[in-house]
Amino acid sequence: MIGLVFATQREAAPFLAAVGASEAASVPVPLFAFRLPESELRGVVAVSGIGTEKAAAAAEMLIRDHGARMIVSPGICGSLVDGVGVGSVVRVTEAHDGDALLRESPGKALACAPVRGPWASLRPARLATVTEAVFEARRRQLLARHADVVEMEALAVARACSAGGVRFVAIKGVSDLADHDGKNHIEANIDSVSEAVARTLVDGLAEFANAGDDSLGLVGKLLRYTKIEHTVFSLPFLFAGAWLGWGGEFRSVRVLVLVLAAGAGARVLGMSVNRIFDRHLDALNPRTMRRELPTGSLSLGTAWGVSAAGLAVYLVACVLLGGWCVRLAPLPLVPLVTYPFLKRFTPLCHFGVGSVLAIAPLGAYVAASQSVAYDSRVAWLTALTFCWLTGSDIIYSLMDRESDLATGVHSLPVALGERGALRVSGALHCVAVVAIFRLLFTSAGNPAGWTAGFAATVGFGLLYVPRIPVPVRFFPISALVGVASALTPILGGVR
Q1: In terms of CATH architecture, what is 218-492?
Q2: pLDDT one-digit tens code per residue, 180-207
Q3: Is 62 in contact with 71 (CB distance < 8 Å)?
Q4: What share of residues in the chain are helix, strand, coil (percent, to 5)?
Q5: What's the pTM?
């Protein structure tokens, strides 16, 4: 559900008419429910009244009582700089405490969530929120040092959203120049500017129209939630680990099936736990806000059920495998359920993701060999798995750099910038290539193995071609690189 907080009925009127909103309540503030035309998007509009305290109370109510996962602060504002003219509509990138700016003691601004679609093309603007309207030249000059526009509510809404862990966006229309003639300009322009804001809101909200798509049945939602297609990341490495554990052959279909079941169960558990604990962060990220938990298309209870099912499959498979698999079964669970928290504390979180998958070939080796003796071939395979996925995850996180900066999520692209992060991933992938050829040099020299190794090496290079979109680099290119890498010891005849 999306909430909107307008300061006045006059500013809200064009939007309410455009979406055919109906009055839902009149106390403590006027509330209007709407459904975006020709879509399933539903929302609530609160007309808070002018001022920060009223705006904050309205936003808190939308979050607490109506389950708003995103709140928009629309309305009119005054321009502080020459580049933002009357009649223009802007998207706010950060909200400042205007009263602190007037005291010449600026504090930390609150960043707005990134946007996409029509809103992304709007002129970006820094906003100052003040408790008293600005119509004097001196106050305007002080604010203009740090802000482009000024109004009286948005920062309070942003603070409420930050406290509630929901996404905040502000779309403002410029009605005046915040100067001595500002009052007259507001009266003359408020209706036309509010019309422009309403059109912009409807166009932008259409991006979220299918966020809670219920066209899929429960099975379809669960498949999408668990990303079954991404199992391709782990299965080849499970095969490779088992192959080495059996000395270069596949000996038992039963054991292999149980290994695959344990790997699939562990992966479902890790994916589901990650989605559960990241659901509030996902709601703030344009790339992930349409996932099942942020949109409510899948309940939290169902998500926990999926986690429990994954855990059960993993544990049952380990018990049936017996021996060392039972004794060591708890160990992989630690990184599986803790890695989602790393991004909250350290930019090295990518290494946690790599560590989780690196366990796969180790576990398969132990299951097949029923031994925990050191084997250099498995060590190289584990290093290959770790470096491949860690480096790929760093590249994948490039897509979220802007959102991570806004929400405080830690990652190497945030800490080092794009170039620095790519240097780290490049170094990891170089180690992965070394591991591939180290395994090949211990193989029987089968041409198929060398072909897979060279294909993987070329694929690693493609991950750094700027013209290839990052999503394509991660899937399918990185996935195919992983498959080719894992097949290298099998096709090469490593024993």
Answers
A1: Orthogonal Bundle (1.10)
A2: 999 999 999 999 999 999 999 998 887 7
A3: yes
A4: 60, 10, 25
A5: 0.64
